[in-house]
Specification:
It contains 12 helices and 10 strands. It is α/β, with parallel strands linked by helices. The protein has one domain: Luciferase-like domain (TIM Barrel), CATH 3.20.20.30. Strands 1, 2, 3, 6, 7, 8, 9 and 10 form an 8-stranded parallel β-sheet that branches. It has a two-stranded antiparallel ribbon with strand order 4-5.
Length: about 375
C-alpha cells in the first residue's frame, strides 16, 4: 500500500501519498508506513525510504516506517545503511518494517524460489541487527549471504538501534522471529492465511520467543492491521466504498493470485465473496466512529490486549472522503483510546446530574450579608 489505479499519472499519485502523510500528522496519527512493490501496476513505490525521506522535509513529528521492505530482494548491508541514514535525516523517527514478500508477481520478477523467502528474510534480519548494534566490523557466513569485516560508518540515530517491525499473517514462524529480535508486530486483524494462529494465541508466542532469546517486549508493540473507513452514518460508509473496494479486491488482488487471502474457507466460490462477507472475514472497520470504537474494543478483548490499529490506506473513494474518514477517526476514536475525552464526558454527566437535582446555584440576587468566614467558604477563598 498505497494502492492506485494503473491508468493514473504516477507523479500525481506519489505527491498525493505525501499529502496523506502530512494530513495524518496534522490529525495526530502516530505513524505512517509505506510498502515496497515492483510489479502489477497498482502499487508502484519501489523504494519506500525515498518517499519517506521526501515526506520528512515537511512532516516533522510523525514516525515514518517501511511496511514492508522485502528483504530477500536486497543485500542486508544496504538496508541497514540506508535506514540508519534515514533515521538521521528524520532525527530518530524511523522504523524498519520487513517481510519476505507475499506479492506473487514480485517473486516471479526476481526469480526467487518461494520456499527460500522466509529463511532469506530471517538471515537478513540477523545480519541487519548485528550491523546496527555492533561497534565492530561484522563477519557472517550464511546460506544466502556472506559478509566479511563489514561495518556501518553511520549508526542509527536511535539507540541502541532503530526499531524494527515485521508484517505477519499470524503464522507461528513470523511471530517467533518477532519475539527473537524484539520487533514490532504487524498482524492482520482478520483471516489472512490458513496457517494463522487464533488471535489470542499470537502474542503469548511472541513473548515465549522473546524470553527464550533474553529480549524484552511489550504488547504496546503489537498492532492489528485492517481497512478502516468512516462516515457520518454506517449506511453512508458502505455506500461510499462499495464500488471502489469491490474493484480493488476483484480486479487487483484476485488477479495477482491473492484470492485465498479473502476467502472465508478454502476455494470459496467467487460469487459468494460479497463485499460484506470479505469485510467480515478480514475484520474491516466500516461505519461510524462509534462502530470503530466498538470494533477495536472487541479486537482488543479477543487478542488479550493490543498496542494499536494500523489502517491500510486505500482510494476506494475520493480525497475529500478519505480526509473526512481520517478526521472522524482522529476526532472521536483516537481520543477515546488515549483517554482524552473521558474527563469531559464525566464533567458533563456531573453537571447534568447537578442540574436535574436542582443543586446548581441560581444567578443574581443580593450579596450575602456578613457571612461567617469560619463556616462560609468557597473553593477559591474565604468570603469576607
Amino acid at each position: 500500500m498505497p494502492l492506485h489505479l494503473p491508468v493514473e499519472n504516477p507523479s500525481l499519485a506519489y505527491h498525493r501519498d505525501i499529502d496523506l502523510i502530512l494530513r495524518a500528522e496534522a490529525l495526530g496519527f502516530d505513524e505512517f508506513f509505506i510498502g515496497e512493490h515492483h510489479t502489477a501496476g497498482w502499487e508502484t513505490i519501489p523504494a519506500p525510504e525515498m518517499i519517506l525521506a521526501m515526506a520528512s522535509v515537511n512532516a516533522k513529528t510523525i514516525r515514518l516506517g517501511t511496511a514492508v521492505t522485502s528483504l530477500p530482494f536486497h543485500h542486508p548491508f544496504h538496508i541497514a545503511e540506508r535506514m540508519a541514514f534515514l533515521d538521521h535525516l528524520t532525527r530518530g523517527r524511523v522504523t524498519l518494517g520487513v517481510g519476505p514478500c507475499s506479492l506473487k508477481p514480485d517473486i516471479k520478477l526476481f526469480g526467487l524460489p518461494p520456499g527460500d523467502l522466509r529463511p532469506m528474510m530471517e538471515e537478513s534480519i540477523d545480519i541487519i541487527v548485528q550491523l546496527l548494534e555492533s561497534d565492530q566490523p561484522v563477519t557472517y557466513e550464511g546460506k544466502y549471504w556472506n559478509i566479511s569485516d563489514m561495518a556501518l560508518q553511520i549508526r542509527s540515530y536511535q539507540e541502541p538501534r532503530l526499531p524494527m517491525a515485521i508484517a505477519t499473517t499470524g503464522s507461528e514462524s513470523g511471530l517467533r522471529i518477532a519475539g527473537k529480535y524484539g520487533m514490532v508486530v504487524l498482524s492482520l486483524a482478520g483471516k489472512g492465511s490458513p496457517h494463522a494462529l487464533p488471535i489470542h494465541e499470537q502474542w503469548p508466542l511472541v513473548e515465549q520467543a522473546a524470553n527464550e532469546s533474553g529480549v524484552t517486549t511489550s504488547r504496546d508493540n503489537w498492532h492489528l492491521v485492517t481497512h478502516v473507513y468512516l462516515a457520518d452514518t454506517r449506511k453512508q460508509a458502505w455506500s461510499d466504498i462499495k464500488e471502489g473496494a469491490y474493484r480493488d479486491v476483484h480486479q487487483y488482488f484476485f488477479n495477482i493470485g491473492g484470492k485465498a487471502a479473502f476467502e472465508a474457507y478454502p476455494d470459496q466460490p467467487v460469487d459468494e465473496m460479497t463485499l460484506e462477507n470479505i469485510a467480515s472475514t478480514r475484520q474491516w472497520i466500516i461505519g461510524t466512529p462509534d462502530d470503530a470504537i466498538e470494533a477495536i474494543e472487541r479486537m482488543d478483548k479477543q487478542a488479550g490486549g493490543i498496542g494499536g490499529i494500523m489502517q491500510i490506506t486505500q482510494e476506494w473513494v475520493g480525497t475529500e472522503q478519505v480526509n473526512h474518514s481520517m478526521e472522524l477517526f482522529a476526532r472521536y476514536v483516537i481520543p477515546h483510546f488515549r483517554g482524552h475525552t473521558q474527563p469531559m464526558v464525566k464533567a458533563f454527566e456531573r453537571t447534568s446530574t447537578d442540574n436535574a437535582t436542582g443543586i446548581l446555584p441560581e444567578l443574581g440576587g443580593p450579596p450575602t450579608s456578613a457571612p461567617d468566614p469560619q463556616t462560609r467558604k468557597s473553593n477559591l477563598h474565604l468570603l469576607n
